[in-house]
Amino acid sequence: MPSLDDIFDEYELLDGEDRYRQLIDLGRLLEPMPEALKTEATKVRGCSASVWVYPTVTPDGRLHFLAVSNAAITKGVVALVLAAVQDKPAAEVADMDVAAALARFELARHLSANRTQGVPNMIALVRQTAQRLAA
Questions:
Q1: Distance CA 43, CA 92 (A)
Q2: Which tens digits make up the pLDDT trace of 78-104?
């Protein structure tokens, strides 16, 4: 997965349909999530599409998330969130303003409300996980 800065460098050069394609391509870069992890416990509430997020911790204490959606563009938005937090120490993610990191993408302006309504819930889940593990 490219860094959030690298993704944005390309994103800002694109318009409309090309931005959708970039998000779809980003979604394809997500690690596969085993079907067994797609449970009610890992499902993100409030998303119009189904989104599942499963947190893990690497041996050196970094957060690593497996995530997937059943909708291609939503899966790309999930990938954006993960690009901001993936493989960072839990304490860093707990203190991070993920919404601010994503603000420059202006997702609410470029995507329908249905595609972005679950983003705050996904960010909250990621931060709550980080706060719990950083404590």
A1: 24
A2: 999 999 999 999 999 999 999 999 999
* From 23, 47, 102, 125, the catalytic residue: 47
Tell me the Ramachandran region of residue 117: left when phi exceeds 0, alpha when psi lies from -120 to 50, beta otherwise. alpha
Active-site residue flag, 24: no
> Which residues touch 94 (CB under 8 Å, ≥6 apart)?
127, 130, 131, 134
Which domains, ranges and CATH numbers included, belong to the chain?
4-134 (3.90.1010.10)
pTM of the model: 0.90
Is 69 in contact with 51 (CB distance < 8 Å)?
A: yes
Token reading at 131: 């706060």
